[in-house]
Design goal:
With 217 residues, the protein is α/β, with parallel strands linked by helices. The chain has one domain: Metal-dependent hydrolases (TIM Barrel), CATH 3.20.20. It is 35% helix and 21% strand. The chain has a 9-stranded mixed β-sheet with strand order 7-6-5-4-3-2-1-8-9. α1 runs parallel beside α3 and α2 packs across α3. The chain starts with a strand and ends with a strand. The mean pLDDT is 98. It binds zinc ion (ZN) (2 copies). The site of one zinc ion (ZN) has 5 residues, from loops.
Amino acid sequence: MKIELHAHSREVSPCGYLSVEELIRLYKEAGFDALVIANHFSRKAMAEKSETPEAFHALFHQTLRRAERLGREAGLLILGAYELRFDLNDNDYLVYGMTEEQCRDCEALFSSTPEKFGRFARENGILFYQAHPFRNHMTVTAPEHLFGIEVRNTHPRHDSRNDIALTWAEKFGLHQIGGSDCHRVQDVGTTAAETEYEVKNSADLLHVLKNDLYKIV
Ligand SMILES: [Zn+2]
Ligand SMILES: [Zn+2]
């Protein structure tokens, strides 16, 4: 199976150009079997897209539910994740396996820290990765707080220094993921996770990620 682990839709991500309809069509055309929509979950996205934290939480998950339904009709598995940013700095973190309930208090989450959230993630079976950790303006996160890092981010308008990320992951034994960080048409499917395992739902995806049953191609 060919899976995109990192894509944005414009309904929730202020920097996204593609609607969920467009994402589904484009990823289907690109030969993908599954697409993880990992929209920005940050105070900035919240401020730009909604009036209240509750409204942002609802928009985030309603968009995902709608994408899941449209994906089913189109024959593309849609799964959800979060690109979480704390108020602390400009780092972004990819979070897989967090439930709607666990992030209901958006503001508490934004004011958290990698240390606190990392502990929460470990206790709750949530996978916590730093996205593109060696782009400009990123701050090193202590490896012990993380499950892994993104070692291949193919966003064409940033230099993610993937070679350094890979070296870092190997040095500290961090799990390695990769994604296109898709925001626009030209970003679609420039990298993928490939697995022999048949992913049918979020639990399957977590199993595959947790046990490294994929390769980044
Ligand atoms: Zn973005
Ligand atoms: Zn992103």
